[in-house]
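Recap for those who missed Tuesday's class. We walked through two folding examples back to back. For each one, the amino acid string is listed first and its predicted structure tokens come directly after. Nothing is annotated here on purpose, so try labeling regions yourself before you check the end of the notes.
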Amino acid sequence: MTGGPTTPGAGHTAAGKAAAHTEAHTGGDADGDIRFHAALKAFEGRPAATAGRGKDPVNEVMIRHWCEAMGDANPAYTGPDAIAPPTMLQAWTMGGLSGHTGRSGAYDELLALLDGAGCTSVVATDCEQEYLRPLRPGDTITFDAVIESVSARKTTKLGTGHFVTTRMDVHADGRLAGTHRFRILKYAPAGTRATPRPASVPQRPRPVINRDNQGFWDGVREHRLLIQRCTACATLRFPWLPGCNACASPAWDTVEASGAGTVFSYVVMHHPPFPAFDPPYAVAVVELAEGVRLVTNITGVPYDKVRIGLPVQLEFLRVDDTLELPVFRGEAG
């Protein structure tokens, strides 16, 4: 995270307290873990960036490059009244290879403390964005970021560490345009020795169901794969979205997929394994007969027999007592 300077000396007390408890933390002492986490939580609310400034104003060239990379031909992003794709929100705040000057010290202090506790590895886990108004070419971008939360110690397949969440507020010409939350895991890598499998099979991650995709999951429970259709221009879309990406109309209905499709692209997952899955396995982008694509699993054929162009047919896989998923069965040829 980048931004302007902070008050000299800010955070030294928290840094000293956390450093003092690093040994207890890494030794696995429960009281030490509690004290260490309390010191980490002292960073919550402190700035990670203050009065940061985008290196370039919102501009047509970057919008064009983004749309070409994403394959997004929405006419809203071209012409005299163009807006920037909302998902570009963070792109306007990035410092590029040379970075930003005046970086805030609090975020670096926090990461240094975690490094000192043995959490020397880092992986980005997720991001969330909220859009409040469209960005237009010529807008000047400024931003502020804050360390929003630091989790208690968590053990993952990668190793043991802490999740750190930052929130960035992005302004265009002084007006709040959107919010970007970014979460990382700072962790101590797990040992290379194999660990025994748990006696019971863990559950798969649950899908995030919200008002925008509730209808899709309602269809899955009825063994129907539903595709959204814009009632203004008849464009089909998947995944489900609150508005049409072709004409921006919010009006839609659904059509039921026939279930026929072909493998458009795929990868074979080997590592890192998640306890609920048994690698290696294939994850594919399937193109339905109706023309839309979705990410899914391929069943019925070994992972090394999946190929681009493989015909597949929809089926519903009962994963556990509370979860059923649409997958696609291929026939080895």
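Example two. Treat it independently of the first, because the proteins are unrelated.
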Amino acid sequence: MQRLHLLALNPTDSVTEGFLPAAARLGLAVTLLTDRPAAHRRAYRGDPPPALEIVHCEVGDFREVIGRISAMGPPPDAVFSNSDHLQVQTALAADYFGLPGKDWRAALRAKNKAQLRRALAAAGQDAVRFAELPPDHDPQDILDTVPFPCVLKPREGVASEDVVLVEEPARFAGHCAAIRERRPGEALVAEEYLDGPLFTLETLGDGRTLHTLGSFRTRLSPPPYFTERRLDLLPRPQHPHADRILEQLRALGIGFGACHTEYTVHRGRARLIEVNYRAIGDHCDLTLAHALRLPLFELILRTHLGEPLPGQLGACSGGRVRIEYVCAERGGTLRTAPGPSDIRSDGVRLVYRPLRQTGERHPLYRTNRDYLGVIRATGTDQDRIDRAVRRFLASRRWEIE
């Protein structure tokens, strides 16, 4: 039996509902390396995946990952992670054991937003004005180089956490201080605000061919924050904008495994926002696989086992998708919320999954941690999908006290 070593931090739906079942279907034994083993044991207690071993490991340190895998016996057949934070470590471990994997340099360029901008500019692909603020520097030190309005963000952050639009220099130092209070010791990046509607490009490569799977149109919360509220799968990726983004991905060295890229279109020009060198999350990957009728998670794992991808994948489909997140608008205790449901009516399948349990108390994060639940609506007619989502939202209640 082939063995997959899967690196993870906290449990996610992508792993629990996507990659672990896919590994079981492929007949793989899975060793899950994590620094949070208790959380994973709780997550799988009710329905544990077959042939799963959970092992404690400081997965943020590639040296610990390599040492732990080496100590466990025969070399693995694949080393994989779907975590934004663990792509470099996973790539280095795969390379150490001579296994297929991502180029660690490309993974680093995607993760480090300052390196991303430098690499694209050096390749002549796109030049976005930005300033980097090291942890021990005063915001005033870089104020003259910050392009206003700017988007201030952690240099290696994810999921719009602590990402804020800063309109004027007088507010810059205050926003830097607020982020540093929550993230001591982290570097920040302030880059020019790229206007225009937001889109995603979902790709999958095997190191030889880079396939476009699909593209979403993303709706965000009002500025100054950037929480994703809704995504709609486009009938086909935009051209020539998708082609332009693919050029930039190749310039970054990205072409192995799954990649989720965000970009805007302004005045006919595609501008890359960020690259997440893993599959799209927050239930979008699960819904995309269903809409494309594609064994997406199996294909991703197969690339890490060294198997070539089929000749044609995704890119357009008769399926339509709307993903909507029910968000908390204030902090407090969730008192009333609907349970999970799976409704089929008028040619639409609408799946609702709660993401927060009643009785839980939370502050207002202004990130995807504010999600109370997610609606996944699929069908072939966008108007019917939209009506189904509106009916569902109008007939349910979410109350925060």
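Answers for example two:
The mean pLDDT is 95.
DSSP finds eleven helices and 21 strands in the chain.
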